[in-house]
Design brief:
The protein has 18 helices and no strands. The chain is mainly α. It is globular.
């Protein structure tokens, strides 16, 4: 996945340019809380890729070794063909990710943002366990594992730029390629747009299989999902729908329905669960974005923590081969805890704020004990001191006369039978 690693700096530069454009035009397409959450979710996705990337690669390589029907020559045209074929199977993988509940539970993470900007592109799932199955026919066709990984990465890199609202329509490209306009349709929760435009690079698959929908001037896109996330916790973003499917499966009396909850059509619920735990959806006209107000200093503090989080993640990705297993584990846990803490602070969860000082003080000690280089530990210690100063100022501004008492985390509870869907 070196293609993705090399692309990360380009992604960050383009996000910075879009932020500048957004600020100059005053369009308001960015919110600090939603953008940081998207990036945090993307970071967790990269971490999970490190953990489980060998599983699908191993299975694909095994099928290729045993069942490949052809030995394809080294040719640019073979690469072009593999790229196009990959996008064809991506269309069906993506489509099934919307049409089957257990696959939607994984894919929904990408749609949970209620904004639409370049950070949304990085809001990727950490639970894509089964999607590699859709690409096994390419192994039978003789597409080498390295070629598959490369064209998959290139496909994903292409999809980054279409997550913007600053590009309207692109003429003839709209008929062939996925563009910002027709991909905005895909991220809409408007009923007319639901489950449309699945292509990754080419929109021609949607035109061929009847799932194409243009962006309509008379129907402005409302981004997000009807079963809104209402949380900035990146872990909960990955678990929300799995949790609610489990509740549906548990509460239904029918053993057949316990299975169908997971593998049936997205949004389907057993009749007895619907009766016991009805899901009342408000009309789209009443939709409001999840946007708890945060004091300016707490917002700045979360931004500083996210910059540190990006630094730790890039260090792990670049130095992964050189780090011991223990060092990788400790760094991964530090990244995970920081991402979750930042998300909860964006929601003003007071327990998370109270736990920040112990987290900041313990990290340099933990890294020193784990054997990290002294310059890394020193950098982390200085960052922790600066963070503590910002945290103190932020807490004084946000809670000038109140103790840090524990409230319930917003968005953590939902109806036992509710299965968020786009319908």
């Amino acid at each position: 996945m070196e293609v993705i690693l090399y692309a990360i700096p380009i992604f960050l530069v383009l996000i910075a340019l879009e932020l500048l454009t957004d600020w100059r035009k005053g369009t308001g397409y960015y919110r600090t809380n939603d953008a940081i959450t998207s990036l945090n979710i993307g970071i967790l996705s990269r971490l999970m890729t490190i953990v489980h990337q060998l599983i699908p690669f191993t299975f694909y390589a095994l099928v290729y070794d045993k069942l490949a029907m052809f030995t394809l020559p080294e040719s640019p045209w073979v690469w072009v063909g593999a790229f196009i074929i990959y996008d064809f199977f991506y269309y069906w993988k993506h489509r099934m990710g919307h049409e089957m509940s257990v696959l939607w539970a994984s894919h929904v993470v990408h749609h949970s943002s209620e904004d639409y900007n370049l950070t949304t592109a990085l809001r990727q799932t950490s639970g894509a366990v089964f999607t590699w199955i859709f690409f096994l026919p390419m192994a039978v066709m003789g597409v080498e594992p390295v070629m598959l990984v490369t064209v998959a990465a290139l496909n994903l890199v292409y999809q980054f730029w279409v997550h913007t609202r600053h590009i309207k329509t692109l003429g003839w490209m709209e008929a062939i390629f996925v563009t910002p306009s027709n991909h905005r349709v895909h991220h809409a929760q408007n009923r007319v747009y639901i489950d449309k435009n699945y292509g990754g690079v080419f929109i021609i698959w949607d035109r061929l299989f009847g799932t194409f929908m243009p962006e309509l001037d008379e129907e402005p896109v409302v981004f997000g999902i009807r079963g809104a996330l209402k949380s900035f916790n990146p872990v909960w973003a990955n678990l929300q729908v799995y949790s609610q499917l489990a509740k549906d499966s548990y509460h239904t009396a029918s053993w057949k329905d316990k299975f169908k909850v997971w593998f049936g059509r997205t949004g389907w619920r057993p009749a007895d669960v619907t009766e016991k735990f009805p899901l009342n959806k408000r009309p789209l006209s009443e939709f409001t974005r999840f946007d708890p107000k945060l004091s300016p200093w707490l917002s700045r503090y979360c931004l500083i923590q996210h910059i540190g989080l990006l630094g730790m993640t890039l260090y792990l990705l670049v130095r992964q081969a050189e780090l011991s297993g223990v060092s990788q584990a400790i760094l991964s846990v530090a990244i995970l805890v920081t991402a979750v803490q930042t998300g909860l602070i964006l929601q003003q969860v007071k327990l998370a704020i109270a736990l920040e000082a112990p987290r900041l003080l313990s990290m340099p000690v933990l890294f020193l004990t784990a054997g990290f280089e002294k310059n890394i530990v020193l950098t982390l210690a200085v960052a922790s001191v600066i963070s503590l100063i910002f945290l103190t100022l932020a807490v004084r501004q946000a809670f000038p006369s109140k103790a840090l008492l524990l409230p319930e985390e917003p968005g953590a509870e939902s109806e036992p039978g509710a299965t968020p869907s786009r319908n």
